[in-house]
């Protein structure tokens, strides 16, 4: 019983942006960004809220690194993660769509990302960078459907730069100009989670209405 409790406490800490940075520092931050963008089991990890927290913590000195290093480090981690996802999808091929449900994998997430990709094509890599779940699975699908690698790299770099810079730099600027904003971080994180979840919820509602 104790081991189970410890495991769930570890999971809670792993999805908490503040804990990731406080206990793991800059390198764990980069690893989580890589995992969330590159490993299909990383969909449950924090993305937008983690980047915002990183920018805010850099502004307040908790992360004792130049903002350029933090922003570019996250960008490179996202590019590497997306590339890993693409190569995994390319190696697995269409067989990934037949993968059975497991604790860390839900076919519904994959199909949702596939529908998004079918609608937007390679641009789904850029647009999906700002959407949870899509961010994890879009590169995998791009590889599975054999998107030209050169095109993928362009979409990959563009999406990673827009995603990392917009969130990290916005938080950094706010942290530098609004005293005490760190005290409201929990509310900001909740707001980000709600906002980024809206498109996913809308899609689910539309699907349910169409099947009724």
Protein described:
The protein contains nine helices and no strands. The chain is mainly α and 212 residues long. The protein has one domain (10-211). Helix 2 (17-38) crosses helix 3 (48-59) and helix 4 (67-92) packs across helix 7. The longest helix has 29 residues, at 149-177.
Outline the fold blueprint.
Layout: H1 2-14, H2 17-38, H3 48-59, H4 67-92, H5 107-120, H6 124-127, H7 134-144, H8 149-177, H9 185-211
Helix pairs in contact: 2-3, 2-4, 3-4, 3-8, 3-9, 4-7, 4-8, 5-7
In short:
With 212 residues, the chain is an all-alpha fold.
Strand residues, percent: under 5%
Question: Distance N terminus to C terminus?
Answer: 43 Å
Spans of 5+ residues with little confidence (pLDDT < 50)? none
The rounded Rg comes to 17 Å
Indicate how many domains the architecture comprises.
Answer: 1
Going by helix content, strand content and strand pairing, the class is mainly alpha
Shape category: globular
Q: Please write the string of helix (H) and strand (E) elements.
A: HHHHHHHHH
Number of strands: 0
Specify the biggest β-sheet: none
Tell me, rounded to a whole number, the average pLDDT: 81
Helices, by number, come to 9
The helicity comes to over 70%
Keywords:
single chain, 212 residues, mainly alpha, 9 helices, 75% helix
């Amino acid at each position: 019983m104790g081991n189970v409790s410890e495991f769930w406490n570890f999971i809670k800490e792993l999805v908490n942006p503040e804990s990731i940075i406080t206990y793991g520092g800059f390198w764990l931050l980069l690893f989580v960004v890589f995992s969330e963008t590159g490993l299909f089991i990383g969909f449950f990890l924090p993305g937008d809220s983690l980047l915002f927290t990183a920018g805010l913590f850099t502004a307040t000195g908790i992360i004792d690194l130049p903002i350029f290093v933090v922003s570019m480090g996250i960008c490179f981690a996202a590019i590497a993660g997306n590339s890993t996802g693409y190569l995994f999808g390319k190696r697995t091929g269409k067989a990934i769509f037949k993968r059975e449900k497991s604790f860390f994998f839900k076919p519904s997430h994959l199909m949702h990302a596939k529908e998004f990709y079918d609608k937007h094509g390679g641009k789904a890599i850029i647009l999906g960078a700002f959407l949870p779940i899509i961010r994890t699975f879009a590169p995998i699908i791009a590889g599975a459907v054999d998107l030209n690698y050169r095109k993928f790299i362009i979409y990959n770099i563009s999406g990673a730069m827009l995603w990392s810079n917009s969130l990290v730099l916005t938080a950094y600027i706010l942290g530098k100009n609004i005293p005490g904003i760190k005290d409201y971080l929990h509310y900001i994180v909740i707001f980000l989670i709600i906002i980024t979840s809206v498109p996913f919820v809308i899609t689910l509602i539309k699907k349910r209405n169409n099947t009724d």
